[in-house]
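Quick one, tokens below:
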């Protein structure tokens, strides 16, 4: 059964496994957190509480999509946005580990994270993705994403798609 869980000590080995898989795939995004898991958990708690935030950052809750003790993906939920996040980043970011892609887990991960956003009182959520990331485009559109604009990234030489998802039911 798939569940959406916050980072926790019992999932440390599952997280280290996911981080290593991303790293083997050429993406080292989780390696810093894997080298000091206790510090990562403390930082994640602070980010969720909105305390000890670095300048220019916003509160953020992290979640893991877990299936039988294995982490299939990760999401990040930001209830407020900076101007930079309004352009690229949005309310929710997510990724699925390489071996779990193409199996519908991204759609599930985003759906469950949108439920958390709705519970926080957000009426709509902004999501962005690279225009050429067909998998992410499908995940967002499968969750009701409506394309608002396509804009150049301010950080990289790519086009960014900005989607809105209505959370009011």
């Amino acid at each position: 059964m798939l569940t959406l869980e916050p980072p926790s000590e019992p999932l440390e080995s599952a997280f280290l496994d996911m981080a290593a898989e991303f790293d083997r795939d050429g993406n080292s995004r989780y390696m810093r957190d894997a080298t000091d898991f206790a510090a990562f958990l403390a930082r994640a708690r602070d980010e969720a509480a909105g305390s000890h935030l670095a300048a220019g950052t916003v509160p953020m809750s992290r979640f893991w999509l877990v299936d039988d003790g294995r982490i299939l993906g990760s999401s990040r939920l930001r209830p407020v946005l900076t101007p930079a996040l309004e352009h690229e980043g949005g309310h929710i970011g997510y990724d699925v580990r390489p071996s779990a892609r193409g199996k519908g887990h991204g759609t599930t991960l985003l759906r469950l994270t949108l439920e958390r956003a709705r519970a926080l009182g957000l009426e709509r959520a902004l999501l962005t993705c690279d225009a050429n990331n067909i998998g992410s485009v499908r995940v967002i559109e499968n969750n009701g994403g409506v394309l608002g604009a396509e804009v150049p990234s301010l950080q990289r030489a790519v086009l960014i798609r900005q989607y809105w998802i209505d959370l009011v039911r």
